[in-house]
Design brief:
The structure holds 5 protein chains of 5 kinds. By secondary structure, chain A is α/β, with parallel strands linked by helices. In chain A, the strands form 2 sheets. A 6-stranded mixed β-sheet of chain A has the order 6-7-8-3-9-10, sandwiched between helices. In chain A, strands 2-1-4-5 form a 4-stranded antiparallel β-sheet, covered by helices on one side. Helix content of chain A is 37%, strand content 26%. The chains are: A alpha/beta, B mainly alpha, C alpha/beta, D mainly alpha, E alpha/beta. The complex binds adenosine-5'-triphosphate (2 copies) and magnesium ion (2 copies).
């Protein structure tokens, strides 16, 4: 479904990604792990078009993502839950969700999608008229995921969804990832919480200093020495 | 942290500036120079708070108060400007505190602060006009000519004297700028301008720091006003109050460069010379074109040299800094939840 | 070395005052200066340097300083706004240069200043105010059938230098005539709304309104007055906006008729029979030149004539005398020549004479013989109705029944 | 006592109603500015000057081309909308990432440019459309038809803009854009287009105001000075971006000017309005309708 | 040293903190946990003066500080970090901390502030180089900077809000050690808000749990980790690991 070939990217003169190759197949859940500043977020941004790669190609179901204008990339079925959530703090929860369904294709199904999201996150329904900026971290994370789901994406990019959440909620989030998958969505997820994430994904990539260091199934990764020494600091 | 080299450069520059009126005596050019110095001082005064994101459009009001209080005291009560100027400054200071305190206490910042201060200068303008029986209203106000001691009355016919006075005041402004720049207050104010809560959590008394800088800025601006009226021997509400003057201050400061000490001065030199040259250049042959071109140039300056002329030049000279992540931070800041 | 006099001419060509009459004054002055430049005066070439004060006092100061000190002009001439004349006159005096004001009507320009080098042939603002009051006072019994103490007058004015000065004259005149002043109030010419003022006028029920203003505020006031149903017996305007009939007409249509205005007489209306015979051809010339610049204007504004006539007095009377009698165009020669001026009534295009108050008098430099006249606009024509000596027709007073504002 | 009661007469009522009508004019002006200033958080100090250009457009279309008022109006609205879009494209867009003060200044420069452009292009004359609308009379009280029109336009405009902003996807996106510009692309929003739409809309509202103001005021290059500052204050008093607040603030201001002018001098009415603004800023810093923190 | 009673905070009609009372003893590390939105940060905001309480009393060292201006509270000896780092980007790293050292200690001398800055930076392991820019810091660095700023104010009580969020596991362990060092070496009392139970339970002496703005449990880590209500609203399936961590901590402190 998603194919990255020798993708390099950076900020100004600073290069953050080096020749990254990555594949996500339809229906899969894939994890990306790696230490701070490894370039995980950059990877997500490059996929969703927030930054442009300096080299390499990205294809979503055969369509050239790099050639698509950033605001059209959602229409390809890619939804990105950014790091730090990035909600619209002065808009209500409702309006934030509405923004998620901004695309022409999604507007028609607005009501349906809203039901789906409220079904997943009853808390959001309770707080639908609250300003997003005044909600707690966990509530905001739900809202951010909900917003991304509003566009009815095929591929969901999650950037550290568990950061700053209470343990139960972290479990819920991972639970959720499973449920989202069960609905047929493909998920690409960046996480610090390695133990947890490896439980929900099929495969994972280890990224370090902007380059893929290792990849494999969850079990392989857990067992891998590279992962252990490079990342778990064992 | 002024290096040896810079100190020498400053000393030479200053010596040249002091010597100038004794060598070069064209009266009109001296007149323009005096105006440039006085306005440079006013703009510097503005920038002392403006550089910390405290964008005031009320400084015309402070200037007006400094000018009018001094002139009124002189004309009606015969109080010497030597006393009148401090009184005028004090009056402006009190006003600054009266408006500033609640503003800062209740966290009125950004656009809101700009507009509250705009209203302030509006009020000063209206009050000066409405109390025309004392202030001369829109006809303007002229300090009475001194019959006795010129020094006591701070009235001089000689442009060189005025040039030196203006130079002194301007220099004082630059010194104050540097003192603040090197003080801990600068850290505090930079911090406040980015994030008031975080500054407070570092122990900064946000309201007091802002009041302090506003007070200094208002006092200096009032001084600029009284020097201006003494030099021109005339003042109208339009010269000092209203949005036009305040905008002019902001313009010059930004065009010159807000974050460098000589920025407002460069701004004054450029805006005043530009306005003069254009006006004289177009003359009465193409009426109105001078302001049109002036406006277009200002817009271009701001678009293409956002750090101001001097600021951009200095940036060129300095070694390239690491690419800034400022654009990203801006968004993250906005998205900050209500912690 | 060639003999010439260099004259710095300062008017407002941009900004709000330009449309308020300054530009028209400039045109009048320029026509005369160009005229004399063709022939020269007593062997002196005439060179005029023009500057635009942009309706700002600071720029007026800067430009005057520049003209005097940089362009080295021998004198400055012109100025429309009193707020500019006050500081410029002080500077000129300080520099001991010569200044000839064509407009700047505020009495504050001269009051007790003791100027030596500053002259103004023009009537002062309080004279305007006194004139209209005098006119009403002389007509109160006949036209309103009221004793002066029963006549209700309202004085309103824009709060700039000009309006304030005229209103002081109004007030003094009303006191002298013994009128019942029911209202006196200033307002800002840029106020977006004058309905409160109109409401107050309605409440005050004045027989006569004395108004001083510029163009946008006059139209706004009268439009709101009409919309709110303000009624009165007469409206007395005092120059500035009221001097530009075109604009009154554009803004008010037929309602502009019967409005009074006081100004120096329009040179095209002045009684040419009592005038110095060499003047009518000049008036004709000014008219023709003006029509070239501004074709198709129904009533040529009095401002043009003011600029022209007052400049003409200088060029035809003061300057020749300075050169011939005092040997040049230096400030002192010009000053002595100006003080010698003694033109009888009828000796200027504006009808009045010229003689300046001398040193030591409170208004030193002011023309003691100038007076404005009261005119009335009737059916797109303006006619002098006061003073009697200049009068061209009987005033229509109060407003006839059936007109928009009539309180009959 | 008598004197005190004397104030409560028909004239007071007239002043109150005239205040409301003036409020309509101010509200109309505040509407577009609120959209630009408050909602997308872009400063247009030169807003009143756009209105001025619109008034000139009306004047010339009606006077010179002899078209009827109602044909001229849509043209004018379109023209000012284009002007608004151009302002964004040429001046604001390059400054979107610059500090807000630079935007403020750049548009302040445009203010000079538009004023002097009008001086150069149209001259310094005061111009008047010369359309005289009938007067509405109720007994001893009379009201301006033109003002009533402005009032209605402001009301309808406000409701329409409010519904647009809250009910439509585009409206919501416009509100979102000032809060996190970068992330808009993730929503599938073309930010450039969105800014252009909003700027054109803001321009169109300025054009609408121009069409109605030209019925009441002379046009001249400096007409913006009469309205500009007060419009800003109204937007802030109402709470930036709060349309209903802006609407109410316009009426409060207008009443203060109107009643203040009635009981005291007109000039003091304005002083009072400004002072009221400053006091309110302290009582309700986030605008009239904002909940207290 | 800190005694809080009946603390309430309402936002509009919503009660974020409802009648919470607790005390903290000198030299203790108190863990403050609870679901998202349960009011932890809000309590911190009130303790540090960023928000004024709706009602209730906060006695710090015997003096009432509820509702005081933040700088006065900071000067009286409370230091705080923010959950989401709020560095001053226009200042260098060193200036950030020196600022806190100067104002946080009641504006003594510049020299003293700079000294405090150097000490705090060294303590958290950031470079003491005077020109290093904040832009160079990653997530972990920013968290450290927050801590250094708080330390530079020479607090007696440190409020640490989610100092671990966004860190990888190695860094988390380092951070936890750091907090313990701060207490052990500088004698600073700490209240610590954290969601990473495995780390928190190992460090704290006592835990307090909030839910919906109310205190639902308080006590030793092992006891709290076993509290069914806490498990239900907060720990979920993490309860076991949490209990294990708490047990390990007890073993260590016991032994
Ligand atoms: N907007 C930006 N401008 C410049 N450099 C950036 C920017 N964003 C990230 N970087 C740099 O790019 C590198 C990779 O950053 P990225 O955010 O992708 O890392 P990450 O793996 O997501 O880390 P974390 O776990 O902290 O989220 C880092 O060195 C970072 O400093
Ligand atoms: N300014 C505010 N206005 C309205 N509600 C607010 C405000 N600040 C916080 N809240 C609400 O108060 C509740 C408590 O928030 P708080 O930030 O204290 O939670 P928390 O316990 O720190 O959560 P987390 O662990 O997610 O950081 C939340 O429901 C939040 O929505
Ligand atoms: Mg990341
Ligand atoms: Mg929190």
């Amino acid at each position: 479904m998603l194919e990255l070939r020798s993708v390099s990217a950076g900020y100004g003169t600073f290069q953050a990604l080096f020749d990254v190759n990555l594949d996500v197949k339809a229906g899969e859940a894939v994890g990306v792990i790696g230490p701070n500043g490894a370039g995980k977020t950059t990877l997500m941004r490059v996929i969703s078009g927030l930054i442009r790669p300096t080299r390499g190609s990205i294809r979503m179901e055969g369509v050239d993502v790099v050639a698509t204008p950033p605001h059209k990339i959602v229409s390809l079925g890619i939804a990105h839950v950014p790091e730090n959530r990035r909600l619209f703090p002065q808009l209500t929860v409702d309006d934030n969700l509405k923004m998620g369904a901004f695309m022409k294709e999604a507007r028609g199904h607005y009501a349906e999608r809203l039901d789906v999201v409220f079904d997943l996150f009853p808390r959001l329904k309770e707080r639908r008229h609250q300003m997003a900026g005044t909600m707690s971290g966990g509530e905001q994370q739900m809202c951010a995921i909900g917003r991304a789901l509003m566009s009815n994406p095929k591929l969901l990019l999650l950037d550290e969804p568990s950061a700053g959440l209470a343990p139960v909620v972290v479990q819920q989030v991972f639970e959720l990832v499973k449920r989202i998958r069960a609905r047929g969505l493909t998920v690409l997820i960046v996480e610090q919480n390695v133990q947890q994430v490896l439980k929900v994904v099929d495969r994972a990539y280890l990224i370090e200093a902007g380059a893929i260091r290792a990849s494999g199934t969850s079990a392989e990764m857990l067992a891998s020495d590279t992962v252990k020494e490079a990342y778990l600091g064992v | 942290m002024m290096g040896q080299g810079r100190l020498v450069a400053w000393a030479i520059g200053l010596a040249a500036l002091i010597a100038l009126p004794f060598v070069y005596r064209d009266p009109y050019h001296l007149h323009i120079l005096v105006l440039i110095l006085i306005w440079s001082f006013a703009y510097t005064s503005w920038s002392i708070m403006g550089r910390f994101g405290l964008v005031s459009l009320g400084h015309g009001g402070f200037m007006g108060i400094g000018a009018y209080v001094m002139a009124l005291l002189w004309n009606h009560l015969g109080v010497s400007p030597w006393i009148g100027i401090p009184v005028g400054m004090a009056a402006a200071g009190v006003l600054a505190l009266i408006v500033g305190y609640p503003c800062f206490r209740f966290r009125i910042t950004g656009h809101y602060f700009v507009l509250v201060t705009l209203a302030l200068s509006g009020i000063v303008l209206q009050v000066i006009t409405a109390t025309r029986d004392y202030t001369g209203g829109s006809l303007g106000y002229t300090p009475n000519r001194a019959s006795g001691n010129k020094l006591l009355a701070l009235q001089f016919d000689d442009k060189t004297t005025w040039y030196l006075i203006a130079l002194g005041v301007w220099l004082a402004g630059i010194v104050v700028w540097h003192l603040i720049d090197r003080s801990m207050s600068r850290y505090a104010l930079e911090a406040i301008s980015e994030d008031e809560d975080a500054a407070a959590a570092a122990g900064v008394n946000v309201t007091a720091e802002k009041l302090k800088i506003t007070l200094i800025s208002a006092l200096m601006t009032a001084l600029a006003g009284s020097i201006y009226v003494q030099y021109q021997m005339f003042i109208t509400p339009d010269t000092v109050s209203g949005i036009a003057v305040s905008l002019q201050m902001v313009f010059a400061a930004i065009v010159g460069g807000l974050f460098v000490s000589l920025g407002p001065t460069v701004g004054a030199v450029i805006t005043i010379l530009l306005a003069e040259t254009l006006r004289i250049g177009f003359g009465t042959k193409a009426v109105g074109w001078d302001n049109l071109v002036y406006g277009v140039l200002l817009v271009l300056f701001i678009i293409f040299l956002p750090k101001g002329i001097l600021g951009s030049v200095l940036d060129r000279l300095k070694p390239q800094r690491k690419v800034s992540r400022a654009h990203e931070q801006e968004a993250i800041q906005i998205a900050r939840p209500g912690t | 070395q060639e003999k010439k006099i260099k004259i710095g001419v300062v008017f407002d060509l941009t900004g709000p005052l330009a449309g308020g009459g300054s530009e028209l004054g400039y045109i009048g002055a320029k026509i005369i200066l160009d005229h004399f430049a063709k022939t020269g005066v007593e062997g002196y070439k005439i060179e005029a340097v023009y500057a635009d004060a942009q309706s700002k006092p600071d720029i007026a100061i800067n430009e005057s300083v520049r003209l005097l000190e940089q362009e080295k002009v021998d004198m400055v001439l012109g100025f429309f706004s009193s707020a500019q004349c006050v500081p410029v006159a002080a500077r000129v005096e300080q520099l001991k240069k010569f200044m000839w004001m064509t407009t700047c009507i505020s009495s504050a320009v001269f009051n007790d200043k003791g100027y030596k080098y500053v002259f103004r042939p023009q009537a002062s603002g309080d004279q305007f105010g006194m004139m209209t009051m005098d006119f009403i006072a002389q007509n109160a019994k006949a036209k309103f059938d009221k004793e002066p103490k029963d006549l209700r007058v309202a004085i309103i004015h824009e709060d700039g230098a000009y309006g304030v000065d005229v209103s002081r004259g109004n007030e003094a005149g009303a006191k002298k005539a013994g009128f019942n002043v029911v209202m006196k109030e200033g307002y800002s010419a840029t106020a977006p709304d004058l309905s409160a003022l109109v409401t107050k006028l309605k409440r005050a029920k004045p027989d006569v309104i004395f108004h001083t203003g510029y163009n946008p505020d006059i139209t706004l006031l009268l439009r709101q007055a009409r919309e709110q149903g303000l009624k009165f017996g007469a409206l007395m305007g005092h120059g500035a906006g009221y001097g530009v009939y075109e604009k009154l007409k554009e803004g008010m249509g037929a309602d502009a008729t019967y409005i009074f205005n006081t100004d120096p007489i329009s040179i095209w209306l002045a009684n040419q029979k009592t005038m110095d015979p060499k003047l009518p051809p000049v008036i004709k010339m000014v008219g023709e030149e003006f029509d070239k610049i501004r074709p198709g204007v129904a009533i040529r504004s009095a401002h043009v004539g003011i600029g022209a006539s007052n400049t003409y007095v200088f060029m035809s009377d003061v300057l020749p005398r300075a050169i011939k009698k005092y040997g040049g165009v230096d400030p002192d020669a010009l000053r002595k020549a100006a003080l010698d001026t003694d033109i009888p009534e009828g000796g200027t295009m504006l009808g009045f004479g010229v003689k300046f108050y001398g040193e030591g008098t409170p208004m030193a430099g002011q023309n003691e013989r100038s007076f404005p006249v009261v005119i009335q606009y009737i059916d797109d024509k303006s006619s002098v109705v006061w003073p009697k000596s200049q009068s061209q027709r009987e005033a229509v007073l109060p407003l006839p029944k059936g007109t928009t504002y009539s309180n009959q | 006592m008598q004197a005190f009661l004397g104030i409560f007469d028909i004239y007071l009522l007239e002043a109150v109603i005239n205040g409301i009508l003036l409020g309509g004019v101010l509200a109309l002006l505040a509407l577009g500015l609120n959209l630009i200033f408050g909602v997308i958080d872009v400063t247009w100090i030169c807003y009143a000057e756009l209105v001025m250009i619109g008034m000139y457009a009306m004047y010339f279309i009606v006077q010179y081309y002899g078209l009827s008022y109602f044909i001229a109006a849509p043209f004018t609205i379109l023209l000012v909308a284009i002007l608004g879009a151009a302002l964004h494209y040429l001046v604001i867009a390059p400054l979107l990432t610059a500090p807000p003060i630079n935007q403020l200044l750049a548009t302040g420069g445009v203010l000079f440019v538009l004023q002097s452009f009008a001086t150069v292009a149209f001259g310094i004359d005061f111009r008047n459309l010369g359309i005289r609308l009938p007067v509405l009379a109720f007994g001893d009280m009379n009201f301006s038809y033109a003002r009533l029109l402005s009032f209605l336009a402001a009301l309808v405009g406000m409701i329409a803009v409010y519904l647009f902003m809250t009910r439509t996807f585009t409206g919501t996106a416009i509100r979102a854009i000032s809060q996190d510009r970068q992330i808009m692309a993730l929503m599938g929003v073309d930010t450039k287009r969105m800014y252009l739409i909003t700027s054109a809309l803001g321009g169109a509202l300025a054009g609408l105001a121009a069409c109605l103001l030209v019925l009441q005021y002379d046009v001249h290059p400096f007409v913006g000075l009469s309205f500009g500052p007060i419009t800003f204050l109204i937007c802030v008093l109402g709470g930036l971006g709060n349309f209903i607040g802006g609407f109410i603030a316009a009426f409060l201001f207008a009443e203060i000017i109107s009643l203040g002018g009635l009981v005291s001098d007109l000039e003091w009415g304005y002083v009072l309005a400004f002072a009221f603004f400053i006091v309110m800023m302290f009582i309700r810093p986030a605008g009239l309708l904002a909940r207290r923190r | 040293m800190l005694e809080v009673s009946g603390l309430v905070k309402r936002f509009g009609g919503f009660t974020a903190v409802n009648n919470v009372s607790f005390r903290v003893d000198q030299g203790e590390i108190l863990g403050l946990i609870g679901p998202n939105g349960s009011g932890k940060s809000t309590i911190f905001n009130m303790l540090s003066g960023t928000l004024a309480p709706t009602s209730g009393s906060i006695l710090f060292g015997g003096a009432e500080i509820a509702g005081l201006a933040p700088h006065r509270i900071i000067n009286s000896g409370i230091g705080r970090t923010f959950q989401i780092p709020r560095p001053f980007r226009r200042l260098t790293i060193f200036e950030n901390v020196a600022l806190a050292g100067f104002y946080g200690q009641g504006r003594h001398s510049r020299a003293r502030a700079e000294e405090a800055a150097e000490r705090s930076l060294a303590m958290v392991g950031l470079p003491t180089d005077r020109h290093a820019s904040v832009d160079g810091l990653g997530a972990a660095g920013l968290k450290k900077l927050e801590l250094a700023k708080a330390l530079a104010t020479a607090p007696k009580l440190l409020l640490a809000d989610e100092s671990l969020g966004g860190l990888d596991e190695t860094e988390m362990d380092q951070a936890a050690d750091m907090l313990r060092n701060i207490r052990d070496e500088l004698g600073i009392t700490i209240i610590w808000v954290e969601h990473i139970m495995g780390v928190l339970m190992r460090v704290v002496d006592r835990v307090m749990v909030l839910d919906h703005g109310e205190k639902i449990s308080e006590g030793l880590p092992s006891a709290v980790a076993g509290d069914p209500r806490v498990i239900e609203v907060y720990l979920g399936t993490d309860a076991e690991t949490t209990q294990a961590a708490a047990a390990e901590a007890r073993r260590r402190s016991g032994g």
